[in-house]
């Protein structure tokens, strides 16, 4: 069903407006804007990674159009944690206005500042921690510790006279976290007593029953796999998953192996994490990967990026024998991560490629080498019962996740009409404890393609898919400007066809006849004649070769 776009009314005094620009109906691009008394507060500003039907795209950004003309009204960007899907788009927003304050925990801001440095963007930052209160414009903020697959994650409570909002960010309730930092349910309980008028809650695992397993349950499995590995071990994970890297380092050290980081982002992020004390590395365990080649194969663990099958990441290049490290028989490759929806085929291709090279590939399908960083249904039910929110807006997830989360909220007694199934651009007004959908903004995808941002359109991507799947035909014809008669051609060249160009000899008389008929009707415009050529060869190719290629006709008047 198509989304009906309609403009919201002018914001009434004493009303809090909320509109997500990303993260609803997708896993990524998380960004929500809060507006009160003419000021804007942004929570998260992340990227979405492209799928196979978006060829050539590097990243997908939230659509900044609704706030582009109001950059001076933005009082701050709160960042809940340091994953790309929550911080990756910040450099692109700061390129529009670089003095917007960035508010987040120590590790989150350190990871972001390294990214901003690469983009050559200056920034203004405010480091906060759990339990801290800050007034930013008309918004009273309180930060709450939550447990996730990266240290230092925070939920944020946003208080205005219009009502109290709690945004979880990404979270789970690991009761034995590696760093001892629990999701602060006591703070949740206190906020519940004060009254939560609107609850924006992580939906990623809402359709998974029970509770998310403990992160520390992976350690013994990693230890066992590494202990049995006869040669090199290569572990792939997200470059910001500090807890997972910590367990790999511990397992490697326990088995007398050294660890080398592979991939620019892995090296950068783990250096930051170690310097800030979030990653503990025993003396003599880390080694530069260039020196690692001198170590016996049964004494090294490589910690790599590429767990999502990204074509240019280290693991994919290894599978394609396009990396200095070439996996082979006796090597063990561990994919210690989840599958982001849309990446499944790319990951399975990498697994197949590594298996074909003789490597033993260990992944979540055949061993417990990954647990999620997101709360499952049982944990979400706890939250609803502790907080008893008046209104709920499920965020961060595909539509089935949002729907499952809404159902959980309703199971705990929250009325269906107070459970909002929104999408990107849905505008919600909160006043007197009631959240109401008042508009739907017309927003889309913003594609980063090389150095261009927002220039590539869906039509361009369609052209790329046609080129990749159906091929390309060019037709050049020179006609007499006064009579329309063909002087030279048609000259036909095809790319992406198994058939030789001579197969098109049969259609050349049809093109000549169609042009003669058009000329006889008085058509002389070269563009109109080009369309005649396009239609004629397009019909023929479809009927004869069962293809719908991209056709570029060029009619030259002489």
From TrEMBL:
Stated family: Belongs to the metallo-beta-lactamase superfamily. RNA-metabolizing metallo-beta-lactamase-like family. Bacterial RNase J subfamily.
Lineage, opening ranks: Bacteria, Bacillati, Actinomycetota, Actinomycetes, Micrococcales
Binding positions for Ca(2+) per the UniProt entry: 56, 58, 449
Location(s) in or outside the cell: Cytoplasm
Binding site for Zn(2+): 81, 83, 85-86, 148, 170, 396
Key word Transmembrane helix present: no
Superkingdom per UniProt: Bacteria
Primary gene name: rnj
Keywords: Calcium, Cytoplasm, Endonuclease, Exonuclease, Hydrolase, Metal-binding, Nuclease, RNA-binding, rRNA processing, Zinc
CDD domains: RNaseJ_MBL-fold
EC number: 3.1.-.-
Cofactor descriptive note: Binds 2 Zn(2+) ions per subunit. It is not clear if Zn(2+) or Mg(2+) is physiologically important.
Purpose of the protein: An RNase that has 5'-3' exonuclease and possibly endonuclease activity. Involved in maturation of rRNA and in some organisms also mRNA maturation and/or decay.
InterPro entries: Metallo-B-lactamas, RibonucZ/Hydroxyglut_hydro, RMMBL, RNase_J, RNase_J_2, RNase_J_b_CASP, RNase_J_bac, RNase_J_C
One example GO MF annotation: RNA endonuclease activity
Protein name in the entry: Ribonuclease J
Xref: Pfam families: Lactamase_B, RMMBL, RNase_J_b_CASP, RNase_J_C
The Metallo-beta-lactamase domain, residue ranges: 28-222
Needed co-factor(s): Zn(2+); Ca(2+)
Binding site for substrate: 239-241, 370-374
Active site: 202, 374
């Amino acid at each position: 069903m198509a989304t009906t776009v309609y403009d919201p009314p002018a914001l009434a005094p004493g009303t809090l407006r909320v509109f997500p620009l990303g993260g609803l109906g997708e896993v990524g691009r998380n960004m929500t804007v809060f507006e009160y008394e003419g000021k804007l507060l942004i929570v998260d500003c992340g990227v979405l990674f492209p799928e196979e039907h978006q060829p050539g795209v590097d990243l997908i950004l939230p659509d900044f159009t609704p706030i582009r003309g109001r950059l001076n009204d933005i009082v701050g960007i709160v960042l809940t944690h340091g994953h790309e899907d929550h911080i990756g788009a910040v450099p692109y927003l700061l390129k529009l206005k670089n003095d917007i304050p960035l508010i987040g925990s120590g590790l989150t801001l350190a990871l972001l500042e390294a990214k901003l440095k690469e983009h050559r963007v200056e920034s203004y930052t405010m480091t906060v921690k759990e339990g801290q209160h800050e007034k930013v414009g008309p918004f009273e903020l309180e930060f709450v510790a939550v447990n996730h697959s990266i240290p230092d994650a925070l939920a944020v409570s946003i208080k205005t006279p219009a009502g109290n909002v709690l945004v979880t960010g990404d979270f789970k309730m690991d009761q034995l976290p590696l760093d001892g930092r629990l999701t602060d349910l006591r703070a949740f309980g206190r906020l519940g007593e004060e009254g939560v008028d609107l609850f924006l809650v992580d939906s990623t695992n809402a359709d998974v029953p029970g509770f998310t397993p403990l992160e520390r349950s992976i350690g013994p499995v990693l230890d066992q796999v590494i202990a049995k590995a006869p040669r090199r071990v290569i572990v792939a994970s997200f470059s910001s998953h500090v807890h997972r890297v910590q367990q790999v380092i511990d397992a490697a050290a326990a088995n007398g192996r050294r660890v080398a980081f592979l991939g620019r982002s892995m090296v950068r992020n783990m250096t930051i994490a170690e310097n800030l004390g979030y990653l503990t590395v025993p003396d003599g365990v880390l080694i530069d990967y260039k020196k690692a080649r001198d170590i016996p194969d049964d004494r090294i663990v490589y910690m790599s990026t590429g767990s999502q099958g990204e074509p240019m990441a280290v693991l994919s290049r290894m599978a394609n024998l396009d990396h200095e490290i070439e996996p082979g028989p006796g090597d063990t490759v561990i994919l210690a991560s989840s599958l982001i929806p849309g990446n499944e085929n790319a990951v399975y291709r990498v697994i197949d490629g590594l298996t074909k090279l003789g490597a033993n590939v260990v992944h979540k399908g055949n061993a417990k080498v990954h647990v999620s960083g997101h709360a499952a249904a049982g944990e979400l039910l706890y939250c609803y019962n502790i907080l008893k929110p008046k209104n709920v807006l499920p965020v961060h997830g595909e539509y089935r996740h949002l729907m499952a989360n809404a159902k959980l909220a309703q199971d705990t007694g929250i009325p269906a009409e107070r459970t909002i199934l929104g999408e990107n651009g849905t505008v919600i007004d909160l006043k007197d404890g009631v959240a109401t959908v008042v508009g739907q903004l017309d927003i889309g995808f913003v594609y980063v393609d090389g150095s261009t941002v927002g220039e590539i359109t869906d039509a361009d991507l369609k052209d790329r898919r046609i080129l990749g799947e159906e091929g390309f035909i060019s037709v050049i014809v020179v006609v007499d400007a006064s009579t329309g008669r063909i002087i030279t051609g048609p000259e036909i060249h095809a790319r992406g066809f198994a058939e030789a160009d001579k197969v098109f000899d049969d259609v050349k008389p049809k093109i000549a006849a169609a042009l003669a008929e058009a000329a006889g009707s008085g058509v002389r415009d070269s563009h109109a004649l080009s369309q005649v050529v396009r239609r004629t060869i397009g019909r023929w190719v479809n009927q004869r070769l069962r293809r719908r290629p991209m056709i570029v006709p060029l009619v030259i008047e002489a």
